[in-house]
Amino acid sequence: MTDSAKPTLLVVDGHSLAYRAFYALPVDNFTTKDGQHTNGIYGFLSMFVNLLKAEKPTHLAVAFDTSRESFRTREYTEYKANRAETPSEFRGQIPLLQECLEAMGVTVLTKPDFEADDILATLATQGVEAGFRVLLCSGDRDTIQLVNDDVTLLYPSVQGVSQLKRYDPPAVVEKYGLAPEMYPDIAALVGETSDNLPGVPKVGEKTAVKWLTQFGSLDALLEGAHTIKGVVGGNLVAHVEDVRRNRRLNRLLRDVELPVRPEELIRQPLDAQAVRDIFARLEFRTLLPRVFEAAGEVAQDEPQAAAEPAPQARQASATELAAWAGGSQVETGVTVTILGGLPERIGLARIVEGQGAEAVEATWSDEVAEALAAWLASDAPKVLSDAKPQLKALGRAGLRVSGIAYDPILAGWLLRPSFPDKTLGDLVERYLGEKLPEADPSQLVPETEGATPGQLSWYALRVVTGLRDELAESVASVLVDIELPTLSTLADMELAGVAVSHEKLSRFSGELGTRADAIAQEAYAAIGREVNLGSPKQLQEVLFEELQLPKTRKTKTGYTTDAAALADLQEKAHHPFLDMLLQHREATKLKQIIDGLDAAIAPDGRVRTTYVQTGSQTGRLSSTDPNLQNIPVRTEESRRIRAAFEVGDGYDSLLTADYSQIEMRIMAHLSGDPGLIEAFNTGEDLHRFVGARVFGVEPEDVSPAMRTKVKAMSYGLVYGLSAFGLAKQLRIDQSEAKSLMIEYFARFGAVRDYLRSSVEQARVDGYTETIFGRRRPFPDLTSPNRQLRENAERAALNAPIQGSAADIMKIALFRIHNDLRDLRSRVLLQIHDELVVEVAPGEWDEVERIVRERMGTAAQLTVPLDVQVGRGADWNEAAH
DNA sequence: ATGCCCACGTA
DNA sequence: CGTACGTGGGCATT
Prior knowledge:
InterPro entries: 5-3_exonucl_a-hlix_arch_N (IPR020046), 5-3_exonuclease (IPR002421), 5-3_exonuclease_C_sf (IPR036279), DNA-dir_DNA_pol_A_CS (IPR019760), DNA-dir_DNA_pol_A_palm_dom (IPR001098), DNA/RNA_pol_sf (IPR043502), DNA_polI_H3TH (IPR020045), DNA_polymerase_1 (IPR018320). It catalyses: DNA(n) + a 2'-deoxyribonucleoside 5'-triphosphate = DNA(n+1) + diphosphate. This protein is α/β, with parallel strands linked by helices. Among the domains are: 3-176 and 252-297, 5'-nuclease (Rossmann fold, 3-Layer(aba) Sandwich); 314-471, Ribonuclease H-like superfamily/Ribonuclease H (Nucleotidyltransferase, domain 5), CATH 3.30.420.10; 500-607, Taq DNA Polymerase, Chain T, domain 4 (Up-down Bundle), CATH 1.20.1060.10; 674-747, no CATH class. The chain has a six-stranded mixed β-sheet with strand order 3-2-1-4-5-6, sandwiched between helices. A hairpin with a 4-residue loop joins β7 (191-192) and β8. α15 (318-326) runs parallel beside α16, α22 packs antiparallel against α25 (576-599) and α31 packs across α32. The chain starts with 7 loop residues before the first strand and ends with a helix. 43% of the residues are buried. The protein binds a DNA duplex through α23, α25, β20, α30 and α31.
């Protein structure tokens, strides 16, 4: 067998290489937003994919140490004892790295009581016997002993992990002057400081090689030690036992018992979905295509699991379609493809037990619409993947859809709210292990046909089985009882849009533009030059270099210039520029919001947002294009923007309804705190009531300052606030914040007990749960990384509260939507705890009654749900 | 063109 | 060192 024809086995010492990467890469650039350090993982994987590309191994494994303990530490307790404690920031990366490798189809090997290099030695030995060309990659010099004609070592150079030096026998001889198998003899004489193995004093590599060459072997040298003259000779005699011990310890074991043979390490295809998931968690972007590329050759060689062929969809006439749809009680998959916002084609699919799959489809037409209208509006169960855009398209075509039994995208989000599968294709890969056929959009005449609507419906039906199996009962009820009814409601809200006055906006925008320009001129005058006031980078130059103002809080790229920091600066070192800058920020920010909103007004004068039902990890909605959930409200001036949201033509008024303090009420309910429950049942102002208890005064004697403090504390509780954060927020001493917290918890102890126990429960279960059973997993609650763990604890504290509030609002929302079915009034907006309804003439009383009733009774808590209702011609007016 | 960072709007 | 979001400008990168 020629060398090139031999299969190549690559075995990597994961621990030593990741450890080198950990020190080679700056941690600042490799930290996720949650605080997980990833520099070791990134550096290792980057090196690893380069290695795969360059060496194209046919067989592959990565070995790890299990711990610092091994048979060597037992034999010699001082072994590696001088090493600093492995940083926890590094240790925490190892399980994640292993997870990455497993997702990439790479075998990860560990063996308790042995080091990774013993695994390398064993596999190298077995590999050569089995006829492999073996490549080893390790950052531990002891592996040099393994090099021979069939075994090459790739050793990271000092410059970094990306540069690997190849050690074959000639390279070892050139570097050390001796054959590879004698390297441990050199090391035994010289010693290895990193392993805490002291060698013979005054003996370095040069001397060791000279002696070994002279005597021919270590044994011969040690026996003849007394013949060597001088101080070093004496040293050798005195340290013979040390040398023997060193040699025992640096011998790598070639016969470790392993669960696999080299032949079984044949490269496996990667699990694309798993790789995407873990890389998303680690926020690796550029690495993803490199990994796929490196894995490409393997994936093609490996036969895919035989995918069930998609049924050929029969092209049907309108009447055939209607007959087919109406002909069964089995769940039907429905897919509408959409063109320009309207239905273009429709496909239906069905899987009948024992009879296989069937699909029909048709190009959209008035006849099709008419034929399918009754069935679509019926309760016949339908599965739609990412249903909302399809419901909207059908809605624009004048069709209502009922009987939505499942939306796989929503189900996937409920299972993994932190990493939702975004497309049906993602779910097909996850649950079926198949690729959804996709037409290549870059090709004019695609080589591969994309799935047709009928086939997509069939795929949607098939993933439902896996999702149903995985969905816990409580979560399934959140899907059926909350999310699916909400889905149809949102489709109608998005279609309705909200009327926004271009006139009001453009007038305001003009004013703000003029003002911003004037302020900018003043600002330039204050510093004697022009800068881009919108550039934090340029501002830092001005503030901290030219004006020499005291430095603010650090950011990744310098020092912050945010509003809070600028206000602080203004107090410490008055400078007119600061005030100008703050005013300029305010004006330009408002103008930016206004102009964005103005641009979103459709020809009919209405703005239509998109609610992303899977847009949060807690159960809330999010709003995009434009975001109507962050329209300014806090300042008098910014409310002019809300005033531009008007009642539409043909309608009477806007109704706003919001829950007051819903999160604190949920906190009262979940904690069962008698004091807090009483606060809500007496009808007293919450913060006044709490303030009276905390400060031991009568409610009427609670000063504004006291009220502010307990209010901040109450809200902070919901977010997992610390004394530090509370002090910062209130600009008081940390000691005062601390005593405030102590006083608060002395009066409302059940709140603290609840918060503590709910995080504890989440640590045990691995997830939190809302009142209605919505779950959110928290794997990081047991992380060794403190920042990561504490972040998870705060989020876990908040999730049941924020999530329960979201559940309650959704329930109220779709019930109101249903109740309004026979009225002209309609819900337009949801802003987490607030709804905006457009009320038709003559319907006010009825609508107000419905809204109050539904919001007030969406959940039965131990405290009442208080609802504030307002009426006006615009959103600002209605808010009062 | 694309992606990251900063800053800031809401509940 | 307080949760959950989305947007837009600047700026470095491709």
